[in-house]
Structure formats: C-alpha cells, structure tokens
Amino acid sequence: MVLGAFCALVTLLKPPPDRPGAGTLLTCSEAHVRTIGQHRDEIAALVAPVLAGRRVPDCLQAHAVQDLATGAGAGRGHRELGRAVATPVALPPFDNSQMDGFAVRASDAGRELRVVEPIAAGVVPPSLEPGTAAPIMTGARIPLGADAVFPVESTSPGAFPAALALERVTVPDDLVVGTFVRATGTDLPLGGELAPAGASVTPALLGTLAAAGVTSVDLVRRLRVLVVSTGTELQGVGDATIGDANGIALQSALAEVGVESRTVRVPDEESTFLAALDDAVGDWADLVLTTGGISAGAYEVVRQALEPRGLAVTPVAMQPGGPQAFGSVEFAGRPVPVVSFPGNPVSALVSFEVFLRPLLAADAGVPDDRSAQVLPAAEPTTSPEGKHQVRRGRVEDGRVHFVGGPSSHLLAHYAAATHLVHVPVGTAAVAPGDPLTVWSLR
User: Fold this and answer.
1) pLDDT tens digit string along 224-271?
2) Which of 43, 108, 382, 395 has the least C-beta neighbours within 10 A?
C-alpha cells in the first residue's frame, strides 16, 4: 500500500484515546500550529480534484503503442488508459495450429493419409484435399477442410524437419475436432474489450494491443506541476548567486512518481513574482509548488503576494519543514491549487516526502518504495519536544545512525543518507537503543 509508511507516521502522532490532545504538546500560544496529519489531510483535499480532473475526456492524450513500449515520451512511472480499447480484429484472427504437427480432418482418425506440402506460419495455405495430411508449424493458419492437428511426436521421426520426408502418416485413433487448434476469437472476439478505462499499461497489455493491430491509445495524462523557486539570490551576480537546488531536486522527486514538471525562478519582488507565475502557469500547470518566501520576515514574496489571494500560511509541528502554506489561487484567469514549502533544501525535500509524495505516488500507481520499519537508535540525540523531527540517517547492523545534524541546509548530508528517521512529538531526547521509525529512501 503506497500510503502505508505515511499511515505508520500518522499513527505515531495520534493522541491516546484517554488523553485528548496528548501527543501534540502545544501551548495555548501555539494552538494555531497544525499537526502533520491535519496538514496532510488539507493537502490531500486540495489536490484531489486536480488528480480526478485529468481523467476527463478533454484531458486525455494519445500515445503511440510503440513509443510506450520503448519508453519514448512515456516518462517514468505507471501509465493508465483513459478510454477502453476494443479490438479491431478477432484474437486470434484465424484458426491456427497450437503445435508442430499435421493438419487433418478428424473424421480421418485411424486412417493412413498421403502427406502434402507443409504449411509455414505467415502464409495462406491451399484447402486440404480429402485423404491428405499437411505438415503444419506452430502458429500457422489451419487450411480450409482441416479441423484438427495431431502432434509430430506421434510419427516415427518424432520431429521436424525429419518428419517432412514422410510420404504417408497414420492419424491417431482418438483424434477429435478442434484438437490442438487455436480457434478464431477464442482470446477475444471482434469488437471485444481489450482493456477497460483505468487499466495499467503493462507489457502484456502492450503486447495484446500490438497483436490486435492497435497502434495508438488514449492515456490519462501526467500531472503537470510548476515548481517555483523564489529568491533574488538565485539570479544574483558573482559570489551572490546560489544554485537552484530546490528546483532540480523537486523535479527529480516529481519524476520518480510519474509527474511532469517545469521550473521557474523568481526574485523577491511581488509584481515581478506575480507576472512570472501568470506567464508560467498559463493553461499548462495543474498544480503550483513553491519553495521559500513563506516565513514571517521581510522579503517573504510568496506570503506577501499570495496570502491576500487565498493562500493559507499554516505552520506545522514538524522539524524541518515547519513553515507550510496551501490554497487555491487565481493565475492566468483560473484557480490553481498551490502548495508552498520552506526554502531550505532539506525542508523542501522532507516536506515533499511527508505531504505530497504519498498522494502523487498512489495516484500514479507507483509502488511504495518508502518501506517503514522500527529500529533501535545507535546513538543519542535531542529533539524539540513539541515537534515531530525528521532526521537523516543510515541503517547499519540493524541500528539507526544519524547522518549530519537536524539543520535544514545540510543537503549533502541528506544525499548521503539512506533513510528518513522519525522522532515523534513529545520526545525531547533519544537514547541508544530507543526505537525509531525509519523510511527507506532507496
């Protein structure tokens, strides 16, 4: 189950039934801070209509079967049929032999027959004359007049090509009509449904489509996400320039769950920011994912530009990734869902793993590779008691080793980690041997 790891995390956050509110440890002044579970539910509700909307007829996209088979233009992840596909031919399209043998009339059982010219696959054979048997290869068309096949193993040579030298053969006594004949339409009749809408595009389905002569199918198009990296420093000069780690990292993370994406970098200036987003969203983006610009300080361009337009800035009891925002905002004359993550790269990636990846992976049918397990800590650490801390780590010798500290700028340490390590709300200190939930990242 794709959401299994996340459900395990949410379970950690639930208060015991006899202690309402236990597990959050929020003071009255912190009551506006959301739990991870609350924010996850809000994001799911925001994104759900967009995911469903891609399945309407106007949003479907035609793809060549050959391209899907080779991966050209298909991208990574699961693909889904948008419309049912009916076969334009019966499958198989003609009666053919199930094995190497001799095509005969079943009424000639027990008789010795004269052997005529062999029938290879891919040819239209002449009608079978009475009193004759035609050597036939697997998959070859059954000639008119024949209604059964007996295997070449029933002859003294026992195999082709040696049995092609036989001048006469004896038909087995127990042969009946239809023996070793693949009848026309026994897989699917003409016009039968090859696959329903919503079917996964698998190798077997692609093979079936090719066998039926179907060259193109309509697929549910991929979700299209505009990744917005904010910060004048991304467009700075000389030593003031910082590389756009968030844009690249999130595009890669989105691709892993079958999502198409584009990036745009915008400065910390409100009018420029809004104009750039109107242009980039256009009629293309289904969802806008921003990073940075949602804290409480100055130059918080996402908050300043979008909060008056419907973006809800909602701190979450999580470290890293405390600042969060979401909402439906109008761009290019239409409402578009917006999910906003913090700007520090570790915060952005952790936020994606916790809030968006489970939803998008489930929608795309991507297998759940974020397997969760509970393992003992190898070393001590501390955690803010009122927050759910997500640390980076490695699992060695069955124990959890932390990689780097909790700071949200330590992207190189994240890259070196193999697991996300969850320290639940209400935990101020972790001692060696304490059980911790970990998610595999690889």
Assistant:
1) 999 999 987 765 545 556 788 999 999 999 999 989 999 999 988 999
2) 382
φ, ψ of residue 318 to 5 degrees: the values are -145, 145
Other CB atoms within a 10 A radius of the CB of residue 276 amount to 17
Neighbour tally for 345: CB within 10 Å: 26
Per-residue tokens: 22 = 């236990």
Angle between helices 36-53 and 4-13 (to 10 degrees): 150
Q: What is the CATH number of domain 372-440?
A: 2.40.340.10
Task: Report the 10 Å Cβ neighbour count for 230.
Answer: 26
Q: What is the 3-class SS of 376-397, one letter each residue? A: EECCCEECCCCCEEEEEEEEEC
pTM: 0.76
Q: Which CATH superfamily is domain 96-182 in?
A: Molybdopterin biosynthesis moea protein, domain 3. (2.170.190.11)
- DSSP labels for 320-367? S----EEEEEEETTEEEEEEEE-SSHHHHHHHIIIIIHHHHHHHHT--
3-state secondary structure of 234: helix
pLDDT digits (tens, 9 = 90+) for 302-337: 999 999 999 999 999 999 999 999 999 999 899 999
Q: Cα–Cα distances in Å, from 311 out to 50, 215, 290, 306, 347?
A: 17, 45, 12, 5, 19
Residues 6+ apart with CB under 8 A from 343: 230, 231, 246, 291, 292, 293
Q: E strands within 183-324? A: 193-195, 216-219, 224-230, 260-266, 287-291, 312-313, 318-319
**Can you tell me the distance from the alpha carbon of 18 to that of 385, in angstroms, rounded to the nearest whole number?**
21
In the CATH scheme, what is the code of domain 4-54+222-364? 3.40.980.10
60-88+192-219 CATH choice from 3.90.105, 3.60.20, 3.30.1490, 2.60.40: 3.90.105
Helix (H) or strand (E) holding 276: helix 270-281
Report, in angstroms and rounded to the nearest whole number, the Rg of the chain calculated over CA atoms.
32
CB atoms within 10 A of CB 165: 9
Q: Residue 263 to residues 251, 277, 280: CA-CA distances in angstroms?
A: 8, 11, 9
Does position 109 have pLDDT exceeding 60, yes or no?
yes
d(CA 269, CA 275): 10
Domain coordinates in residue numbering, the chain: 4-54+222-364, 60-88+192-219, 96-182, 372-440
Report CA-CA distances (Å) from 340 to 9, 39, 287, 349.
21, 12, 11, 12
